[in-house]
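pasting for the record
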Amino acid sequence: MKVFNTVIGVSALLALAACDSKTENAQEPAAESSAMTEAPAQEAQAVEEPGDTVLEILTSPHRSDANRARDQYRNPEETLFFFGLERDDTVIEVNPGGGWYMEIIAPFVKDEGQYIAAQPNPELADMPAYIVRQAEQIQTRFEEQEAVYGDAELMFYNPADPSLGEPESADMVLTFRNTHNWINAGQAPAMFAAFAEVLKPGGVLGVVQHRAEDGASAEETASSGYVSEQEVIDLAEAAGLELEDRSNINANPRDTHDHPEGVWTLPPTLRLGDENRDVYMEIGESDRMTLRFVKPDPQ
C-alpha cells in the first residue's frame, strides 16, 4: 500500500533554497547526523539494474566507493536481515540524510514493495539549509535513477507535529542515527508516537543509534550524539511499541564514548581534521545499538 504524501518538485526546492535567506545562511547543527558527510550521489556510476539481493545491491556501481567503504562499520546486510526486511514491505525511512541506506533499501523493495523517504518539510520556517539540500538531492535521484529506485517517494513532515502517512499503512519504519537529534530538540516522544501510528499491527520499528554507556541520561549524552539503550526503549514503549529483540551487529568495543566532539570526532565526520586522525580511524565509527520493536496486534 502506498502512503499519500506531499512532494515538492526539484525546481521548487532549488528556488526555495535560493530565496530563503534564513535557510540559505543557516549552519548545519552541532548535532548533525553523520549521514550528512556521506559521499554525494554524483560520485557513483550510472546503472541499469542494481541486482536482486542485498549483496548484489551493495556491490552495484550506483553506490560510490566512499559509501561502500562504510559497509564494514554499518553491516547493512546483517542489519536489514535482523530487522526482517522483505521485498514486498512498505518501508518508511525517517531522515535518510545523504541516502546511505536509501541506496540499499529502495532497490531491494522497488519491484514488490514501496520505499518512502520521510524528511522534515523544507518549507517550514527557519529550516536549515541542509534539509532543503537533502530533499532536493533525494528527489533528483528518484527522478534521474528510476532503474535503481523505481517508484520510491519523498514525504515531508513537520517535526513539531509529525505524521508519516495514513495510520497502519507501513510494514516497517527505520531510522539510523537520528534519535539524539530528536531528544535534543524535544521532539522524540512525538516522533516515536508517529512511528507507532503509521505502523500496521505487527509492523516493525528498526532503530540504529549511537550508544551511550548503560545508565547514562539523555541530558548528559545526547548533545554528543550518544543515547543509552534504555532511553530509546523507554521512548518506544511509551508510544505503545514492544522491544522484540536487540543485537550487537553494530557494536564497537573500541569506542570509549568520550571524544572531544562527540560521535563527530570519529569517522566519517572526523571533525578535528588531522588532529589524532590515525587514532580515530583506528577506532572506526561509533558504538551503536540495533533495536527491533514491534507494534502489538490487538487480535
